[in-house]
Design a protein that fits this description.
The protein has about 250 residues and is mostly helical. It has a domain of about 180 residues. Helices cover about 60% and strands about 0% of the residues. The chain has ten helices and no strands. Helix 1 packs antiparallel against helix 2, helix 2 packs across helix 5 and helix 3 crosses helix 7. The mean pLDDT is about 95. GO terms for molecular function: iron ion binding; oxidoreductase activity. InterPro entries: Fatty_acid_hydroxylase (IPR006694), Sterol_Desaturase_Related (IPR050307). Pfam families: FA_hydroxylase (PF04116). It is found in: Membrane. This is Fatty acid hydroxylase superfamily.
Length: about 250
């Protein structure tokens, strides 16, 4: 009974997070500032209500599945075999802070290779095609997965809990950061500031253009947070920088 109660409460919280964050970005970019952000739009094609409804349906379903995996680990005897801890002094504040980017690095590696696997021709049309129906994604596409892909995506937290010590604060922060970055990747608009292009961060971090190219071209740019796996494996879209610069030059004309 406690497991079901926790599943319900955590699912409601995760769905609320999805609706609030995705919805806020959508309202800002697609409604309130649609005209002023026109130069930041990555693809010109109009998004239909049918597409948005599909994205929301699959995202809410995925939310329940991914939440179930987390609750199953944290609310059953399985938690005893994890490295979850609740007293900050057990590992220090420094580790508490460091565990978040370390978790994101591990997640990016996991995501890259899972993503490459899902693009295998025997898996793509049966599983990953659900996500790629959004070839011009909106923020609502962030969780729009086939059931099996949702399971694969949801396994990252148990994986992290079994290999690095994580405090609940680090877990919640990781999940929040991960989702916001995911929404940005599916935003359909490039909102990165002008200075980002000339900073060292441009060579490390993904952008909305980066992931949008993956959706429109179906291949390349498989990373979630960072560019390095795509660059190492030669899977980065060769037109990425050109496309990014074109949009940013429209946004910030000289």
């Amino acid at each position: 009974m406690a497991l079901l109660e926790n599943l319900f409460s955590f699912s409601m919280m995760d769905m609320l997070k999805y609706i609030l964050i995705s919805g806020t970005f959508y309202v800002i970019c697609y409604i309130l500032y649609k005209k002023s952000l026109a130069s930041a739009k990555i693809q010109e094609r109009i998004i239909s209500k049918k597409d948005i409804k599909r994205e929301i349906y699959y995202s809410l379903l995925s939310s329940v599945i991914m939440t179930f995996i987390i609750v199953l680990i944290l609310n059953t005897p399985l938690v005893r075999h994890t490295l979850l801890y609740t007293t900050i002094s057990d590992y220090s504040i420094l580790w508490l802070i460091a565990s978040i980017p370390i978790g994101m690095f591990i997640h990016d590696t996991y995501f890259y290779w899972l993503h490459r696997l899902l693009h295998h021709k025997k898996l793509f049309r049966h599983i990953h095609l659900v996500h790629h129906q959004s070839n011009n994604p909106t923020p609502f596409a962030s969780y729009s997965f086939h059931i099996l892909e949702a399971v694969g995506e949801g396994l990252i937290l148990p994986l992290l809990l079994f290999i690095i010590p994580l405090h609940p604060f680090a877990i919640y922060t990781f999940l929040l950061f991960s989702f916001i970055i995911n929404v940005y990747g599916h935003l359909g608009y490039e909102i990165a500031p002008q200075w980002f292009r000339t900073s060292f961060l441009f060579g490390i971090l993904n952008t909305s253009v980066y992931h949008n190219l993956h959706h429109s071209k179906f291949h390349g740019n498989y990373g979630l947070y960072f560019r390095f796996w795509d660059r190492i494996m030669g899977t980065e879209n060769p037109k990425y920088i050109e496309c990014y610069d074109e949009i940013q030059n429209n946004r910030f004309p000289q």
